[in-house]
Predict the 3D structure of the following.
Amino acid sequence: SQQGEEDPQALSIQEGENATMNCSYKTSINNLQWYRQNSGRGLVHLILIRSNEREKHSGRLRVTLDTSKKSSSLLITASRAADTASYFCATAHTGTASKLTFGTGTRLQVTL
Amino acid sequence: DVKVTQSSRYLVKRTGEKVFLECVQDMDHENMFWYRQDPGLGLRLIYFSYDVKMKEKGDIPEGYSVSREKKERFSLILESASTNQTSMYLCASSSWGTGAYEQYFGPGTRLTVT
């Protein structure tokens, strides 16, 4: 299976702190995407980084990609209670067209 | 606004029943997907379709079939439901619009087979 793995599985922080989640994958990618899932709901696309990019920002989100280590990290700065959700990385692999392979997710809890 | 809808949020069926899960997208996307989500296993791809009447098996197609007669609609069929198919089912769609295939998800159907 090409399924990625996320680390940590669960993360609990206080509001205002930064949250960092990591994703590792196994085979060459075209791009890597991060999604958020609120409890019991569908996933929402957050940010995408292409294989030739090393860092990308969107609001309070910062994504890095290290293709030599086959890993990515998602940083959420100044977290809020509303950021409480599960976060998934998904990889689009070279030669697999439109398919994405999802990781197992990181459960983030932000407390007041 | 982008929208993917699924026919039911919650569904309870009996073992052996034939179950239909419907998904509709209004974004004229070429690609549609069915996943199941189980605790600790993340999302696993069941089937996907990249065009009307076209389908391809994902990672776990056993016990499932799909139908795509119209571009906007993708149906997942459990031919004979079993208790191990109790799960959250998520539908998604995507297009090559930005050259990157971001997926848009429906709200999910939580299926319980008793």
User: Anything to note?
Assistant: Chain B touches chain A through 31 residues (CB under 8 Å). The longest strand of chain B covers residues 31-38. The CA atoms of residues 49 and 55 of chain B lie 4 Å apart.
